[in-house]
Amino acid sequence: SSSDAARALVGTEQGTTPINVMSEKEHVIELGAAYRFNDNLDLDFAGYGKLIDNFIVKVELASSGVIFPVNLKNGMVIGGELQLRLHNWNNFSATLGFTTCLSVGLKPSDSSSPIAAGLILGEEGENYSHPFAGEDQFKTEHNQLLTGTLNVNYDHPSGFFGLLGARFDSGLPFDLAKNGVGLDAEQSRTELLRRGYSQEVIDMLDLNSDLPGSPDKSVAPHFLIDLGAGFDFDKDFRIPAKITAAVMNVLDTKYLYKFESSFGGTHFGVPRAYSVMLQVKI
To answer: What is the pTM of this model?
Structure first.
């Protein structure tokens, strides 16, 4: 970001903003607690909060996949995880978990640009330097209010085993604006069609904003299920081999993991897929 060649990529928007990116400084608190109900069941909680100076975020050079770091003057990250675990109950073990992460940049009280240093490039740079006026804070790419996971394992002494996995994501955020103005759902749909996105892709997005005029959008919530089963021949037959068959995304859910992200553009979820694996121990 500090090179003259990189500096040539920006326009007048850069103004007097320094280009030398600085290290973050964090004030961090972490809390944890655990409770054991019995030999088979326990509960675990972890929470954290960070107030960050020179908060490092990323911007992308157009749609090139080339990423540059940017310092926001101030940021805040708050999150936590709640996990319920089942151990060795009638050949079953399982984990049910919920996580949340609020990751935001904070608007300076003097109404100056939130960007402390770095190249102001592309749509992310514009949105970071000119966040929506109706908010005191603005989301960064890590912000996801709810992720839920379930993993269930069945392991029979005969060698048969089964696996169930499920996951819910409330959706990672992205900004959508035109000429610096946030768009409503219908305007967003029109703009995305103009940019060449298909109707199928647009249907995988949540184009509603919490506040009128806000550019804040997100990937649509999605739920996935994976199944697997297999047999370990070593337990009963003393043959050092194991076979596993699995179906990923059983419901064939069409979803986006992220959209127009500066961490690598748009990522589509994997459609229903099948696998069979034979492992031999030598």
So the answer is: 0.86
Q: How far apart are CA 139 and CA 258, in angstroms?
A: 14
pLDDT truncated to tens, each residue of the chain (282 aa)?
Answer: 888 888 888 877 788 889 899 999 999 999 999 999 999 999 999 999 999 999 999 887 766 778 889 999 999 999 999 999 999 999 999 999 999 999 999 999 888 899 999 998 877 787 888 888 777 888 888 899 999 999 999 999 999 999 999 999 999 998 887 776 788 899 999 999 998 999 999 999 999 988 887 888 999 999 999 999 999 999 888 899 999 999 999 999 999 988 876 555 688 999 999 999 999 988
Half-sphere exposure of 103 (CA within 13 A, CB side): 16
Is the CB of residue 255 less than 8 Å from the CB of residue 267?
A: no
Contact 77/103 with Cβ under 8 angstroms?
Answer: yes
Which DSSP category does 255 fall into? -
Strands (E) in 37-184, as ranges, are 41-60, 67-89, 92-106, 115-118, 137-139, 144-155, 160-169, 173-175, 177-178, 181-182
In the 8-state DSSP scheme, what is residue 221? P
Q: Which residues pair with 224 in a beta bridge?
A: 167
Residue 106 and residue 137 in contact, taking contact as beta carbons nearer than 8 Å? yes
